[in-house]
């Protein structure tokens, strides 16, 4: 099948030309065959016999190895193999897929080739699907031209999405108009794109039509361009100076530069009264100029300034850029159409502000929401006196509000939105795309007339409804562009939108991948969708592949940056796998229920006791936090007191051997014979029962004593604030009685930092004997720091034990 030809026929902008090509195509659809059926029959036969033949080949591990010991056979296989690879390569090339099948030196070998085949099959099948749909007359919503995995980074409000919303979920995937090797326009930009994770600051530096002058921040190039790192002083000082300097401008920096003008804009009488619709000129009789030089742009601006209205639309590209970039600006007057190369003239386009912000000139857009933001972001352009025909369509309660509908309704023009998602960076711009682009504005001024008439008629000649459309349009022109900002919570927003339930490991992977993707996308100036499409990110998070190859397998086709950084990604997934496994509640909290613990053991039959312990452990982190916020005993409920006591009896006896607090300890370390923690835990296990018994008794004794003493002390000193359990325990230690007493006197029920520090220090007054294991003085533990970890360790040991004697939990 000749794909290039069928593409032509699907891409033609107007419907009459379609039928000609279709007729011509019918004749040589399947050269050498009577009709398509004959071709299919033949093709099917060929595929069947090929399948049969391949099944008849000697199998590995069967006769194959034997046969292969004959050089003749080996040679034959190799040459046939090469032939096949060549054939496949050619088919792939024909379909515009990657096709380096024959490169025998490739390390990845078979797997790589297999990927290539899968990718190509996907591309070809997708194409077949589209063509079949088209033959059926379905024409899939005439969707062009985006990569299958393309996900617009955010919802773009323009004429299209009204149309899209009515056509079901199938239209979510788009195919990119294949334009290979488009040079990245960003390379040519005079001013580098600012993808940093900082808020957007308007680009404007000259303000035509100002009623209120532009704040000095924007006019003073020096302040604007100055970065802290450019100051010739030490970094910390530079930051400080920079902060001081910008602080006084903050309000201006983030305000809408034309806020004042827009707030004081009054709609002219002339546009509120009923117009006589002025018919558009036929496309063929209208001059269309492509503007890509500064001279032409200046001339255009002069022209526009003399008009009383003109129509504007933008074409945009968002796949190979982090923030997106405007590629074209289409402008139509009643007489002429203009297509501005917004990539070429990017840093000059600001001069159009003279016409765009002139309150005496109406600018007609259709669905301007995104356009307004893109104009600010890329050129520092603003619009004063906007009329949005999409708002008019809504006010008129028309059935649909897309530009297509208005064109059909008012101009009886059938437009196809085929190029809406085309790659608008292509230069030179193919003529069909120019023609398409100009249709977006060519009829708009006539539509502007028509809707104004209807809005007045609809309201029995009263201007109220029309006025409301002007007001809504003004609100749109007041919109400010905001840059996507990455925060620690950004991933949750996306995760919540997807309504997937992830466990802690999956959610961690999702969070780490999200951060990786954001950082890399900013750095490489690619969209997040290009870097790692969300559905692939979901798949990786869900599957948590153990091998880098598994990550590749989650992606089809594999995004180039994923392939490049697969090892980094693998490390992130590994990190996620080290999280304790819990389900995540809808509200994002991570409390566990007993049933969740089934996941902790492969056979799902953990002993109830163990499960209860784990439950306690897993919830202890949040519980401890809750306890920490309680100020004293009096505010603890009986249940909380009880729970606290339970937790306290889980204190870590070998805490003093562990690294200082806040050090992340990998779970694996506890199972790694070379690690310190493994050694400690083994020692602990080997501790004789006798010794443990002794300790227990000693502790009981000490506790009893402590309680008595504490009681006495409480009475004697008649304390207002009761000490915490921990402090009471500390008192019982006896060794630090004086200190603790003074602290109690200070009435600091919450353990102070100072206290924690001192608890961590090994005893200086009574150094432990070097050889023997000295039981730890429980009374000095800071349970909050290590309780959770110790719990985990206990469980790990239980599980280890179970592993060695694997019938144990069943009894
Ligand atoms: P339009 O105003 O219809 O010409 O659309 C302007 C720009 O919006 C196009 O160049 C596209 O970049 C973008 N756009 C249009 N339709 C879609 C869509 N369905 N999804 C994402 N972006 C779109
Ligand atoms: Mn538009
Ligand atoms: Zn458009």
TrEMBL record:
Q: Where is the composition biased (Basic and acidic residues)?
A: 696-718, 757-774
- Record's InterPro entries? 3'-5'_exonuclease_dom, Exosome-assoc_fac_Rrp6_N, HRDC-like_sf, HRDC_dom, HRDC_dom_sf, RNaseH-like_sf, RNaseH_sf, Rrp6-like
Predominant location category: cytoplasm
Q: Where does this protein have compositionally biased stretches of type Polar residues?
A: 9-20, 719-730
Residue ranges for the region (Disordered) are: 1-26, 696-775
One GO BP: nuclear polyadenylation-dependent snRNA catabolic process
Citing just one GO molecular function, the answer is:
nucleotide binding
Gene Ontology CC terms: cytoplasm; nuclear exosome (RNase complex); nucleolus; nucleoplasm
**Domain annotation HRDC: ranges:** 503-583
- What cofactor does this protein call for? Mg(2+)
Q: Which UniProt keywords are given for this protein, alphabetically ordered?
A: Cytoplasm, DNA damage, DNA repair, Exonuclease, Exosome, Hydrolase, Isopeptide bond, Magnesium, Membrane, Metal-binding, Nuclease, Nucleus, Phosphoprotein, RNA-binding, rRNA processing, Transmembrane, Transmembrane helix, Ubl conjugation
PANTHER family xrefs: EXOSOME COMPONENT 10 (PTHR12124:SF47), POLYMYOSITIS/SCLERODERMA AUTOANTIGEN-RELATED (PTHR12124)
* Name of the featured protein: Exosome complex component 10
Which source organism?
Sander lucioperca
The top of its lineage is: Eukaryota, Metazoa, Chordata, Craniata, Vertebrata
Name of the gene this protein is made from: exosc10
